[in-house]
Design a protein that fits this description.
Helices cover about 60% and strands about 15% of the residues. The protein contains five helices and four strands; from the N terminus they run αβααβαββα. It has a two-stranded parallel sheet. By secondary structure, the chain is of the alpha+beta class. The termini are far apart. It is elongated, with a radius of gyration of 19 Å. A hairpin with a 2-residue loop joins strand 3 and strand 4. It has one domain. Helix 4 packs across helix 5. The longest helix is centred in the first third of the chain and has 23 residues.
């Protein structure tokens, strides 16, 4: 075993030790995980996300994945000429914005 492999093994062990209380707390619970729109376009991120979701399932947690779509919604809002605003990083959703968001999330993504 190389030094790098051994270091990676210890790093994994530390991470699992830190996660153990949460794993025990959420054992057999359903958890909702948002897979954000920014991450959707990155294949390497998608693979890591999927591996993490599978690991949670193997540990006894029941993950439910919901998707985001912020960047895709923003692009469609721009195309539609609908102005959107953000407060503390959250999109303010008026009727026109909601119509576009529903269209994007139910069709495009």
């Amino acid at each position: 075993m190389t030094d790098t492999t051994e270091e990676e093994g210890w790093a994994t062990a530390r991470t699992l030790a830190e996660a153990l209380p949460f794993i025990q707390h959420y054992d057999r619970e359903t958890v909702v995980i948002k897979y954000g729109g920014h991450a959707m376009g990155e294949e390497s991120v998608a693979k890591l996300f999927a591996a993490d979701a599978v690991l949670l399932k193997m540990l006894g947690v029941h993950p439910v994945v919901v998707h985001g779509g912020g960047p895709q919604i923003s692009r469609m809002l721009d195309k539609a000429g609908v102005k959107s605003s953000f407060v503390d990083g959250l999109r303010v959703t008026d009727a026109a914005t909601m119509e576009v968001a529903e269209m994007v999330l139910s069709g495009a993504i």
